[in-house]
Amino acid sequence: MAVPRGIFRVDALQSLLTDLCASPVAVDRLERLEPWAVARVRLQSASALPCSVVVKWMPDGQREARSAPWRLRNELAALRFLSEDLGINLVPRVIAADTAGRFLVLEDLAPRVPLDQLLRRDGAAAHGDRLAAFARARGALSAATAGRAETYYARRAELGPVDTAADRAGRFAPLRAGAIEHASSLGVPLGGRSAHELTSALDELAAPGPFLALSNGDAEANNILLHASGPAEARLIDFEFAGYTHALSDAVCLYVPGPGWLAVGDPTTTGLADQYRRALARGIPEAEDDRRYGHGLAAACVSWTLIRLQRFALLDTRSPGDHSRLQLIATLEAAARTAQTYRTLPHLTSWIRRIAAVLRRRWPDADQDFADSTRFPPYRARH
After folding, report:
1. Which burial class, exposed, middle or buried, applies to 382 when counting CB atoms under 10 A from its CB (0-12, 13-18, 19+)?
2. How far apart are alpha carbons 329 and 309 in whole angstroms?
3. Which residues pair with 225 in a beta bridge?
4. Which of 140, 176, 113 is CA-nearest to residue 335?
């Protein structure tokens, strides 16, 4: 069997599974799932192992983050915490792990496929039930894990040191400062009541209170697997950046475009907002308080928007018509619209709208009507 370059050691996998089952296990076939460090592996075994598993590994690479061993530890701890400690059926089961060899053996969730593939192929209108399952799954993850941080971090600490403060802040938090500098260079400095409201928003995220819950760190449609037809049984994947943070950070993807989309639509009219909030409130009753919920959601949306705004200098060098310019303006305006809907952070909302207006003038090619659903339907892909 020809083995692709740059993957885990097949002999180490066979040895690990043979020891686990106390009987010989051989790799029959291996299919790498590009572009990720993931492969579907067909097995030959007389044991109770499934005939197919998924192997995920940490690749060697030039960027330290791509090979940092803590990412594998996060994934292993989070998946076992969810499936073994909490007993919730939202994630793949861990079959075996070799932290020294830097790979995990996971349950194969096929024939489920990533939701973003279905949305790109068919459009959002064809997958309303799967989008609803996505919203429920995000809320259910937070609901099930709220108040259980101590249990998770005890399991995580067994695998090595972990920075709980960095988890809570989020790995992109340092990028917000650059965004504020860009806004100032555009003639929209942050100050006065806007600065005060931003401090309030960031304080909310830093001290979530009852909203502290486990996130996989990348709550986007590519990290949920569902059947292309039939029951919308969702499974969440990719927990390399897992950690406890503000639960409503996981709701941002329903309101504000993520990296893959130009628009996500209005979740209040599609019903996704209610699907998410009801699932969340089953474990975090405070989610039923409109003021607390709205303030936390708006804070999370603003934080994400600043993280995206730090890309301004790069996008300013792009050619007219570049989708990333459209996406940035859509992101700013979606965050402002969310805060306005929940009647919170009014001065910060005004500041964000002014930035968007300046960018529309600076980039005439991106001065478009994002409310036009014929041109910008929900989950239109960014190219």
Report:
1. middle
2. 9
3. 114, 235
4. 176
Q: 353: Cβ–Cβ under 8 A, 6 or more apart, which residues?
A: 332, 333, 336
Spatial distance between the Cα atoms of 377 and 25, rounded to a whole number of angstroms = 49
Residue 135, class by beta-carbon neighbours within 10 Å (0-12 exposed, 13-18 middle, 19+ buried)? Answer: buried
- In which element (H, E) is residue 355 found? helix 346-362
Contact 71, 58 (CB under 8 A): yes
Query: Domain spanning 10-107 has what CATH number?
Result: 3.30.200
Cα distances (angstroms) measured from residue 108 to each of 26, 41, 61, 182: 17, 9, 26, 44
User: Which residue carries 């475009």 as its tokens?
Assistant: 257
Q: What span, in angstroms and rounded, lies between the C-alpha atoms of 348 and 192?
A: 10
CB 189 within 8 A of CB 183: yes
State which fold the 113-381 domain adopts.
Answer: Aminoglycoside 3'-phosphotransferase; Chain: A, domain 2 (3.90.1200)
Q: Write the DSSP string, 238-261.
A: --TT-EEEEGGGGGHHHHS--TTE
Please give the DSSP secondary-structure letter assigned to residue 352: H
Calculate the CA 93 to chain-centre distance: 19
In angstroms, the CA 218 to CA 374 distance is 29
Strand order in the sheet with 224-226: 113-114, 224-226, 235-236
Q: What Cα–Cα distance (Å) separates residue 161 from each residue in 93, 156, 157?
A: 24, 8, 6
15-74 residue pLDDT tens = 999 999 999 999 999 999 988 999 999 999 878 899 999 999 988 764 555 558 899 999
Taking every pair of Cα atoms in the chain, the longest distance, rounded to a whole number of angstroms, is 70
Residue 296 has pLDDT above 70, yes or no: yes
Domain ranges of the chain: 10-107, 113-381
Report CA dihedral (93, 162, 72, 145) to the nearest 10 degrees.
20
Question: What pLDDT was estimated at residue 68?
Answer: 80
Task: Write out the two tokens for 273.
Answer: 């907002």
Per-residue DSSP letters for 60-121? --SSHHHH-HHHHHHHHHHHHIIIIIS--SSSPPEEEEETTTTEEEEE--TT-EEHHHHHHH
Q: How far is 292 from 269, CA to CA, in rounded Å? A: 21
Q: What is the DSSP letter of 382?
A: P
Across 213-231, average pLDDT: 93
